[in-house]
Structure formats: structure tokens, C-alpha cells
Amino acid sequence: MSRPLPLALVQAPTRTFDEYAAEVRQLGQDRPHVRLVVHPELHLCERMEDAEPLDGPRDRALAQLAGDLGLWLAPGSVYERGDDGEIYNTAVVYSPEGRRVASYRKIFPWRPYEKTKPGDRFVVFEMPGYGRIGLSICYDAWFPESTRHLAWMGAELVLNFVQTPTVDRTQELVLARANAIVNQVFVASLNAAAPHGVGRSLLVDPEGNVRAEAAGAEATVLTDVVDLAAVETVRQYGTAGLNRPWAQWSPDEKPLELPLYSGVLDPARWAPEDRSL
């Protein structure tokens, strides 16, 4: 059964909360069918000094905004001051009911340049009636284990929040398509606009085809309607009708040792988790 999700990927520079709120309100008026609005990494935070506890004033304001507009909001990531006193780069998501439904601390800060504390868990969340979404922040995309684990947890769309102002955006575009292909998931790689990023945001389908792309660094909004049921179709019939990596193993095959992780690849645990909407 089809599960279409109308979304908007907002390639924009860092904003104040009031600027962000005004932008989202206008977007909701201009594009009333959009259900999920996504912004880039650290969209509301330029400085680590802006860090707040996860349940601080910014969190309450974002939850209220989502509830007032009746939208799913993924406002990028924020600097979070943890209970341990450390500062994390944390992605947050809010539901149309005005609740924070997910938070994810960036597991792979961009070493040695980023000084935030790394997180220690992968995060997916449910959008009832649509599907399961995985959260990823910028440099996470360079580590294949990250997107693979989100896909194994049942993610059908991975939101990769980005703030890249450097020349390696070219490589990130390749990684977005590669992560989509090898995991057979939708990938949204949403970069900041100038002057905080070089833009070139894109949305990739589970076969690696680019559905929407920003050509440059200017502020823009990419809109699309992604049918998350396409993930099931691609995995059933194969990429290009051929490749079914999630169906690689037979139940009676022996586990394969993985010396890299001091563990094993167990065919019984190979396939993604079941979705339960």
C-alpha cells in the first residue's frame, strides 16, 4: 500500500528562532500539503555557547510551534548541554501534537575540528501512517556503519542534517547516493546555504536516483512527495530489478566472522527490523 510523505527540505543559512518560526509558518501557508519540514545542521545555533539542556526553553518553543502549525518539524540539530556537563550536537524532531518525539546525538563529530562530545546510540522514530525515519548528522554519512544500522533498525528515509562549507561537499553527494543504494533507503542530505554552507542539498531514492537537488549555495526549498512503500518494493524486486542485498542469506547458512568488529555476521540477524506503524 502506498505511503506518500510530502516533505520540504529547506536549504537556508543559520537563523534566529524568530526567523525560523516565521519561515516555517510561511512555508506552511505556501505549501499546505507538506507534512514534514526539515532544516540543516545547527540551523538555530551558531556557537557552542548557545547550548541548552535538551528540555530547555528552545525545546519548549519548538514543540509549541510544531503543535500550533500541526506539522512534523525537524529543525536540524542544536547544541545540547547534557546532564553530564558535556556539549553535544543533537538533532531533534517534533510531532504535529507538539511533542519532541526523537533526539539524536551526533556519533561521529568531524575530528579534529568539532569539539562536541560524541553520542552513543542510533535513533529512528515513527511517523504513524507514513513510515520510520532515521537521523544522521553530517559526518556520520562518511561511516557506512551509521546508515546501515539505521536501515537495519527499519529506517526507510534517513535525514542527514549537514553544515558543510568546504570543498568535500562533492564527496558527500557521492556518499548520499551510495548510502541510499547499498541500504535501499531514501536519503535526504540537507546542507546549509551560504554563508554557513555550500548548499547542493539533494534527495535520493532507494535505487540511488536523485529526485531533487539544489544546484548551488543559495537559499532554496526542495519539495517532493516520497512514497516510503517504495523501500519495500525495491527490496522485494531488487535495485534495477536485480540486486537484493537484504535477502542475501539463507536461514541455514553459517555466520561469517567479522574480525574488524571482533564479532560475527549472523544471517539470522541480517535483515532489517520489522516496521510496526
From TrEMBL:
<protein>
    <submittedName>
        <fullName>Predicted amidohydrolase</fullName>
    </submittedName>
</protein>
<keyword id="KW-0378">Hydrolase</keyword>
<dbReference type="GO" id="GO:0016787">
    <property type="term" value="F:hydrolase activity"/>
</dbReference>
<dbReference type="InterPro" id="IPR036526">
    <property type="entry name" value="C-N_Hydrolase_sf"/>
</dbReference>
<dbReference type="InterPro" id="IPR003010">
    <property type="entry name" value="C-N_Hydrolase"/>
</dbReference>
<feature type="domain" description="CN hydrolase">
    <location>
        <begin position="1"/>
        <end position="228"/>
    </location>
</feature>
<comment type="similarity">
    <text>Belongs to the carbon-nitrogen hydrolase superfamily. NIT1/NIT2 family.</text>
</comment>
<dbReference type="Pfam" id="PF00795">
    <property type="entry name" value="CN_hydrolase"/>
</dbReference>
